[in-house]
């Protein structure tokens, strides 16, 4: 599937295209509905072929999270401006927004389990709470079964 077909498919699935003048109207509507907005900043598919894959996955994610997500595609000519606003550094990127706050970003194509885990954490955390990142470090001698 080429990216234009992907854009067409997103429109058929009821996902609107937003730009710098319409994005706030879309975000206000998601806030009023009590759902999280997910915006796709796809980039140029000839430079970022993963954009097609993310465009295919986005409606599936919206379906999987039932009434908790509402999606839109950022218009190509608005990606730079809106990318700066939402902190996009790579494309394609899914941008999650609620209550005027960017909850988080998921860049590139990911495994389904990564999407489910990250999206669940983003939309379930209390608004205004920072996301804590925890890491477990296992010393190399412990990981090899060596006790000191």
From TrEMBL:
Q: Which SUPFAM superfamilies match?
A: Thioredoxin-like
Superkingdom in the source lineage: Bacteria
Q: Which Pfam families match?
A: HyaE (PF07449)
| Homology family | Belongs to the HupG/HyaE family.
Q: What's the protein name?
A: Hydrogenase accessory protein
Biological source species: Bradyrhizobium centrolobii
